[in-house]
Amino acid sequence: MRSCEAINLKIADIDFERKAIHIKQSKYKKDRMLPLSDYMAKGLRQYLAVEHPQTWLFNGKEPNGSYSSKAMSWAFREALKKTSITKEVSVHSLRHSYATHLIEDGLNIVTVKELLGHAKIETTMVYLHVAQCPLVQAHSPLDTLYVQR
After folding, report:
1. pLDDT of 74-128, one tens digit each?
2. Domain limits of the chain?
3. pTM passes above 0.90
4. CA 18 to centroid of chain Cα atoms
5. In angstroms, rounded to a whole number, what is the distance separating the alpha carbons of residues 39 and 37?
6. Cβ pair 73, 63 in contact under 8 A
7. Domain 1-83 CATH superfamily
């Protein structure tokens, strides 16, 4: 998700039962659903138990205020200092990594487009250039359409 989408998440936007995150009125005023991994759900449950946010998933400095993009960038840089990553990265790099991994895991480009909330497929196609996907041997669809008996 975009960083602005993350800071605007409300607790109610996390659906642990359906394993989904509801992104509301983002860029282009569109809503979309993102899958919630079991790993993320576990971390979010722990976070909620410790931090006790009221409305916003990530509390800001002001009472009932959401986190700021500046604070998110600062937290990312602080976390980055604790790693061995030397490459120049930003919060937005996480979005790029997410998209690239989806493509490398075999997800089709149209689904990736919808998950990222892109209006145009051309925007999503950029990720095809950086993804390291194995070449698949060309074959006739007739070979896979009918089961050999």
Report:
1. 999 999 999 999 999 999 999 999 998 998 888 999 999 999 999 999 999 888 7
2. 1-83, 87-133
3. no
4. 16
5. 5
6. no
7. Intergrase catalytic core (1.10.443.10)
